[in-house]
Design goal:
The complex is a heterodimer of chains A (304) and B (246). With 304 residues, chain A is of the alpha/beta class. In chain A, 30% of the residues lie in helices and 18% in strands. In chain A, helix 3 packs parallel to helix 4 and helix 6 crosses helix 8. Chain B has 246 residues and is of the alpha/beta class. Chain B folds into 2 domains: 88 residues, Translation factors (Elongation Factor Tu (Ef-tu), domain 3); 109 residues, Nucleotide-binding domain of ferredoxin-NADP reductase (FNR) module (Rossmann fold, 3-Layer(aba) Sandwich), CATH 3.40.50. In chain B, 14% of the residues lie in helices and 35% in strands. The longest helix of chain B is centred in the middle third of the chain and has 11 residues. Classes of the chains: A alpha/beta (304), B alpha/beta (246). At the A-B interface, strand 4, strand 5 and helix 7 of A face strand 13 of B.
């Protein structure tokens, strides 16, 4: 029995569906010191904005049961330095198309950053993040209303021919209506879920553990929520869905794909086990055989 | 950085809340004093970063304070049990700039990373002075170990129950030093920053996500740009530090 792992994401073939999620993999080159990152399907690089950002004050991290909260706040060197410094370093160790994760504080920001990155040949897809819970007056505010999300999509679509995948927030009443609005506005794919808004309190100080008070909850604890939302969205749209949220094993990848994901992102798990994506890809053929799967692309949306 | 399995060879109490643990395993990536290791514990999601006290070719020794669930779990572990550990994390101290008479200043659980540093400096023929600061006598550890290396050791306690009364800066007066290295709670680091006449290196602590530079959870601003405490630090030089307003 063969184990075909190739999938097609918005017209670009991936050797396998495993994609380290934005914000857990930098611009790739540091993980390239640990293993050959060309074995990945692709990866989504660190959320990039028009201007450089330091992000939120520390502490930015809190431990949780089966997960963590982060409130990094889109720290990144800004699109110009990403083009001038980060991408050249990335190119030396990663030879596949990369996913460019972009965030902004206005519709114009998103369009500007995507337009600047559009000329970079190594970028295969845009992943437009309208779901960062850690910045005020931007990020998630675009992803919590169908109209605002659609406006970002249609504006970005005007500045690039590359596939535009919209990354959605789970912190909404009806994620399906937002996904549909993005599809109608021309999105080529949907990725979900970003982190869930969470909070921890230190019993000793009676203050929030995180300086920004709240942050994005991720890790295995949110996996069932992610599977549910991927299932709902995949059944409501015709464009490909990239599933993420607590994925930590080859079994999780297959479960996400059965829910309707064409490809699967791995986030928090990279921070605990830097080799986890390599392990997942290594484990997939064995797990596929165990569940009698010849080809991963055949199981997408296989759960009815 | 390496990920490997270590076996506990020793896990003993030094004070009511401070433990010393020796771990057998691959220590080849631990190359500089002031680096740390990151330990995975059953049932806890994030790893626990702990500074390296000492290393040899087959073992690494850490000294940790029991402050929460993770360190409590570590205290309850027995000799022979295994731990999944990332090694070789952090930049560590640069010994090449110490001059002939370096001063090492540690406070509380900021003391441990200075041990391997003192050992290396003394091996290189430097005349090392050490100031160890604690709150009270029952919390004091490490004095004999540093003396055993050949360092001149001064101990301070805030309540005066042992050694010089007061803070580490109260024991610095008559010392003639060429450079300094320090690790401890941030108020102590600020005091050392203001009380020292020479350049020096500071080891910082911050809540970390990954511990190897991926998540940007422990970033800080420096005069040389944004740095990650886990990867570009934990050691920063006096010249680059920006103290955030408290």
């Amino acid at each position: 029995m063969g184990s075909e792992m190739k999938v097609n994401l918005c017209g670009i073939e991936l050797d396998n569906p495993v994609i380290p999620a934005s914000g857990t993999f930098g611009y790739g080159y540091e993980f390239a010191e640990l293993y050959d990152i060309n074995l990945l399907g692709t990866f989504s690089f660190k959320g990039t904005t028009k201007d450089p950002r330091f992000g939120n004050p520390t502490p930015r991290i809190a431990e949780c049961y089966a997960g963590m909260i982060n409130a990094v706040g889109l720290q990144n060197p800004g699109v110009e330095r990403v083009i001038a410094e980060e991408l050249p370093k990335m190119r030396k160790c990663f030879h596949k198309k990369v996913m460019a994760n972009v965030s902004g504080f206005s519709v114009e920001d998103y369009a500007y950053t995507c337009q600047r990155l559009d000329g970079c040949e190594e970028i295969g897809w845009f992943e437009v993040n309208v779901s960062c819970p850690n910045v005020h007056g931007g990020g998630m505010s675009f992803g919590t209303s169908p109209e605002a999300a659609a406006q970002v999509v249609s504006t970005v679509k005007k500045v690039t021919k590359k596939p535009v995948i919209v990354k959605l927030s789970p912190n909404v009443t009806d994620i399906v209506s937002i996904a549909k609005a993005c599809e109608a506005a021309g999105a080529d794919g949907i990725s979900l879920i970003n982190t869930m808004l969470g909070m921890r309190i230190d019993l000793r100080t009676r203050k929030p553990v995180i300086a920004n008070k709240m942050g994005g909850f991720s890790g295995p604890a949110i996996f069932p929520v992610a599977v549910r939302m991927v299932y709902q969205v995949a059944n409501a749209v015709k464009i490909p869905v990239v599933g993420m949220g607590g994925v930590s094993s080859a079994e999780d990848v297959i479960e996400m794909m059965l829910a309707g994901a064409t490809a699967v992102e791995v986030g928090a798990a990279n921070l605990v086990d830097p080799f986890v994506c390599k392990s997942i890809i290594g484990d997939l053929p064995r797990v596929m055989e165990q569940y009698k799967i010849n080809s991963l692309s055949e199981i997408i949306g296989g759960c009815k | 950085m390496k990920q490997s399995i270590f076996q506990i060879a020793e896990n003993v109490a030094l004070t009511d809340s401070v433990m010393r643990m020796r771990l057998l395993g691959d220590t080849s990536d631990i190359t500089r004093p002031g680096q740390f290791i990151n330990i995975k514990l059953d049932g806890l999601y994030l790893r626990r970063p702990i500074s390296v006290y000492d290393r040899d070719d087959e073992s690494v020794t850490i000294i940790y304070k029991v402050v929460g669930k993770g360190t409590e779990q570590m205290r309850s572990m027995s000799v022979g049990e295994s731990l999944d550990v990332l090694t070789g994390l952090g930049n560590g101290y640069d010994v090449s700039v110490s001059g002939d008479r370096p001063l090492l200043i540690g406070g509380g659980v900021g003391v441990p990373p200075l041990y391997m540093l003192a050992k290396q400096l003394i091996r290189e023929g430097k005349q090392v002075s050490v100031i160890l600061g604690f709150n009270t006598k029952s919390e004091v550890f490490g004095e004999e170990e540093f003396r055993g290396l050949g360092a001149e050791v001064r101990v301070t306690t805030v309540d005066g129950s042992y050694g010089t009364r007061g803070f580490v800066t109260n024991a610095m007066d008559s010392l003639d030093y060429t450079y300094f290295y320090t690790c401890g709670p941030e108020p102590m680091l600020r005091a050392v920053y203001n009380a020292t006449a020479t350049s020096g290196q500071f080891s910082f602590e911050e809540r970390m996500g990954c511990g190897f530079g991926a998540c940007m959870g422990c970033s800080c601003k420096t005069l040389y740009g944004n740095k990650r405490i886990c990867k570009d630090g934990p050691v920063l030089t006096k010249e680059e530090i920006i103290w955030e307003a408290k």
